[in-house]
Design a protein that fits this description.
heterodimer, A: about 500 residues, mainly alpha, two-stranded antiparallel ribbon, 19 helices, B: about 220 residues, about 0% strand, disordered N terminus
Chain lengths: ~500, ~220
């Protein structure tokens, strides 16, 4: 198993370096190969992590059941996005197109590499380093299109996310401070050590560190009120990058919060960390549900849906029941598949119609019989429709929440998810399903003429098929090994003093 | 042995106060150039703290860290930003949303909040100075004031770098025992972040022909 970890840490990095030298036509297939290989390798980690407590390589690499969940989610999107990018990217002829392609392929592989290593490295300090690396690489990728919108979005993103990570670094230092009371002035922040000593840490210091960590990493996760960079970056970045930001990057930041949660629960008992996550989660879900009702930009709509789902993750953790935590971890996987697929579909629509404004698009399914249909499927899956993975995970979260003494929170969550469902599905279904060149509302720009029927690229259809397949598997019959993995990860998180 | 911690704590407190004062000076500095120079001075003080801790607590690793930090934060980063300013001959004075007096008053209030909030944790550690940690928290909050109230990319970037200086002070007094590889990783990350800030600042300047952030208001809702 150790060799798999080493390959996952080294191989995507080498591919990124090679993309700088190789012709773009080769990088294109190499990226797909790297992504699919990483996903296959991550699946090989599942049985090992479900059976053994942890896999450790040297003093820097370590995975347990919790980290493998996030490795699988990221690696899946790595492969799918590789395929999507092969169909989405239209490089201009000549030197500028070659330069763009080299930057893009090197950047996307490096971005996926940084998101893969974040759950694999051992210790809070290295985790922070890995997440900071994800920020700087993705900020450049957001800016890569060199438009006014992309420049504005990337400046907001790099500034706000860096400030958030500045706070997260302060949280790391404070946690180190808490540890010095047990381990003395010199030790490393490895998980095994922190978890073993956590019950003796001074509670006030752990409390401060946990709140700062939720605020700091929450900035990158997209929790209200520090989510403000998210809709801009998601809508202005090239669509493959949007899919990775939404499906994988937010989840990796959530993983960092879970690591602090794990320590805080052992030190403080579960009440305080759960309440903190509840406040951030409810606020995010409420705000996102309201914003979803008034979005006309397809990619911004999906971005606010990410804020909504991150809120659901935080609320799910706040229920504290092992069942709800299994639901939260399943939700990470299902959200990655659903949001990836939805962004792929959005990319296909934008390429076909040349606009992100949903008021001007009509007859989407007529023009895009495969990717248009699958976009509607992905949006319905995101809204929690059976038989897809998100339905199962949200069902588990709500069921876990009903066992909580404060069961009205679960009820409130269901109401807000329903509200978000209306916002999310209203415009998208109208855009995709309504007849071609139907009447548009008063005072609006007229609907664009529907382009001729035909897919933009078969690669896009393949990537979306992979996502829908994953959603159906997660929803109808998740593999037994995956079930073990999630239960084990939930047990690691739910230990209560 | 009994005297060493107190000298050390005293030195750490002095350095932390100097860093905080520099942060206030940045708030009132109208010219972008003087802001960058103040940042270089602040980084120099932080580097001096690293050397001091290396001597007092015999942490050999910290010498290496001090050298990297000097090269990076005192020479390289200010140099890069000054070069960007040299290329952009427009708007050399930063633009603030509020007057200097109101900014300083706000900064005083938030730094007092940070100082007493961390102080109220009531942790008495024999090995580590808590006062310097509380001042570092104040530095971080004042850096936020600087970033929020200045409307140009250079001030905002310098605000982020100086926030990092505040965290560095905290990490030096509290976490000097972290393995060197981790400390160097922190600094390397800062270097990459600086390069990325520089690239995006340059792209912004090339497109907007200004360093002001006033035009960055297209994306909303």
């Amino acid at each position: 198993m150790a060799i798999i970890l080493v390959i996952l840490v080294v191989f995507p990095f080498l591919v990124a370096a090679a993309s700088l030298a190789l012709p773009n036509a080769v990088s294109r297939y190499l990226t797909i190969f790297a992504g699919v290989t990483s996903f296959a390798l991550s699946l090989l980690l599942v049985p090992a992590a479900a059976d053994h407590a942890q896999v450790v390589v040297g003093s820097f690499l370590r995975v347990d059941a919790l980290s493998v969940v996030f490795v699988v989610a990221t690696a899946f999107l790595y492969g799918a996005t590789g395929m999507f990018a092969a169909g989405y990217l239209h490089l201009a002829d000549g030197a500028s197109g070659r330069r763009y392609g080299r930057r893009f392929y090197a950047g996307i592989n490096l971005f996926c590499w940084s998101m893969l290593i974040a759950p694999i490295v051992n210790g809070l300090a290295l985790l922070w380093v890995a997440i900071e690396v994800t920020t700087v690489i993705s900020a450049l990728l957001v800016a890569i299109d060199d438009t006014d919108g992309a420049t504005e979005a990337s400046w907001k993103y790099v500034l706000i996310a860096s400030l958030g990570l500045g706070i997260a670094l302060f949280a790391t230092i404070i946690m180190y401070y808490a540890g010095t009371t047990v381990f003395g002035a010199a030790y490393n922040l490895s998980y095994a050590k922190l978890l073993a000593g956590a019950s003796h840490f001074p509670p006030n210091v752990v409390r401060l560190s946990f709140v700062l960590a939720v605020l700091g990493f929450g900035t990158k996760m997209g929790l209200f009120p520090v989510h403000t960079w998210l809709p801009d970056a998601h809508s202005e970045a090239p669509t493959p990058i949007s899919a990775l930001l939404s499906g994988a990057l937010l989840a990796v930041s959530f993983y960092a919060i879970l690591r602090y949660y794990q320590i805080a629960v052992r030190s403080l008992g579960s009440a305080f960390p759960r309440n903190v996550l509840l406040i951030f989660g409810l606020a995010s879900l409420l705000v996102a549900a309201l914003y979803l009702l008034s979005q006309h930009d397809l990619k911004r709509l999906l971005a606010y849906s990410s804020v909504e789902h991150m809120g659901i993750l935080a609320i799910g953790m706040s229920f504290g029941a092992p069942l709800a935590i299994v639901g939260v971890l399943l939700h990470v996987l299902a959200h990655a598949a659903a949001k990836g697929t939805a962004f792929f579909g959005a990319g296909s629509v934008v390429r076909k119609f040349g606009t992100k404004d949903m008021r001007r698009i009509r007859g989407g399914i007529g023009a895009l019989p495969w990717s248009g249909t699958m976009l509607v499927v992905a949006v319905l899956a995101l809204s929690g429709m059976p038989p897809f993975g998100v339905f199962r995970s949200e069902f588990l979260i709500v069921e876990g929440g009903m066992s909580d003494p404060r069961e009205e929170i679960a009820a409130l969550m269901v109401v807000l998810i329903t509200l978000a469902f209306f916002g999310l599905s209203w415009y998208t279904t109208r855009t995709m399903l309504s007849p071609e060149q139907g009447p548009s509302g008063e005072g609006q720009a007229p609907a664009l003429p529907t382009p001729p029927k035909g897919e933009v690229s078969n690669w896009i259809v393949a990537a979306m098929l992979a996502g829908v397949l994953a959603l159906v598997i997660l929803g109808l019959h998740p593999p037994a090994q995956l079930g073990h993995l999630l239960s084990r990860a939930s047990a690691e998180l739910a230990v209560v003093r | 042995m009994a005297a060493a911690p107190s000298t050390y704590a005293g030195a750490a407190d002095v350095v932390a106060v100097l860093v905080l004062l520099t942060e206030f000076a940045m708030l009132r500095a109208p010219l972008l150039r003087s802001q960058v120079r103040l940042y270089a001075f602040q980084s120099l003080v932080v580097t001096a703290l690293a050397v001091d801790i290396a001597v007092v607590r015999h942490v050999g690793d910290l010498y290496a860290l001090a050298i990297v930090s000097f090269v990076l934060k005192v020479v390289l980063v200010p140099g890069l930003v000054l070069r960007l300013l040299g290329d952009a001959d427009t708007d050399l004075a930063g633009s603030s949303v509020l007057g200097v007096a109101s900014m300083i008053l706000i900064a005083l209030a938030v730094s007092a909040f940070g100082f007493f909030a961390v102080g109220s944790l009531q942790v008495h550690s024999a090995a580590l100075p808590t006062t310097a940690l509380a001042i570092a928290a104040a530095v971080i909050l004042v850096a936020f004031v600087l970033i929020i109230l200045r409307a140009d990319v250079v001030s905002q970037a310098i605000g982020f770098f100086s926030l990092e200086n505040g965290v560095s002070v905290a990490s030096l007094v509290v976490a000097a025992g972290l393995p060197l590889v981790v400390e160097v990783a922190f600094l390397f990350d800062l270097l990459v972040a600086v390069v990325v800030f520089g690239v995006i600042m340059r792209v912004h300047h090339d497109r907007a022909k200004t360093l002001s952030t006033k035009k960055l208001d297209r994306l909303k809702g």
